[in-house]
Amino acid sequence: MRSDRCGLGWCLRNSEGQFVAGASKPCPGVLTALGAELVSIREALSWLKEYGITSPEIESDAVGAVTEIQEVSSCSLVGLLRDDIRDLTDSFSFISFCHVRRSANKPAHLLAREACSLSDMQLWVDFPPDFIVSAFANDLININ
Questions:
Q1: Which of 19, 45, 62, 67 is 20 to 30 A from 35 (CA-CA)?
Q2: How many domains would you assign to the chain?
Q3: Domain containing residue 56: CATH number
Q4: Which residues pair with 28 in a beta bridge?
């Protein structure tokens, strides 16, 4: 794992909680946990917009990120990321943001960790990568 970058990860599920897509993306530079979470949300929203997903429910285990998206604008890096996210939300017919326990967001966490060892973004569609299958199965058990 390199110390000059952080990893971003997101996971898309359908209404039954099954895997649809996921991504791991290395991010040059070192961001705060909040900054990394906001960049990851922005990246996920950009992908959702590009692929025509119209009504996403965004879950994050970073309560600060969910709160930050609802705050008043500022000129900080976090404020600029928040503004980017808000601009992207206009692309969706419905969108919601909610906080979930870290244990409920384990696949996304594992995808972010994997990103630190990658040189470029990796995208999985329809079938999850092997390293998140167990965490994903545990999530499905907890959902049902």
A1: 19
A2: 1
A3: 3.30.420.10
A4: 5
pLDDT digits (tens, 9 = 90+) for 20-51: 999 999 998 867 888 889 999 999 999 999 99
- Residue in the structure block whose two tokens are 């990103």: 115
Gyration radius from the chain CA atoms: 15
Does 99 map to a domain? yes
* Token output for 85: 């996210």
What pTM value is reported for the model? 0.84
Q: Provide the domain limits for residue 54.
A: 5-134
DSSP code of residue 127: S
Tell me the β-bridge partners of 22. Answer: 11, 124
Question: How far is Cα 60 from Cα 64, in angstroms, rounded to an integer?
Answer: 9
Does residue 90 register a pLDDT over 90? yes
Q: Which residues of 112-132 are buried (b: 16+ CB within 10 A; e: fewer)?
A: bebbbeeeeebebeeebbeeb
DSSP state of 126: S
Structure tokens at 23: 């991504």
Residue type, 110: L
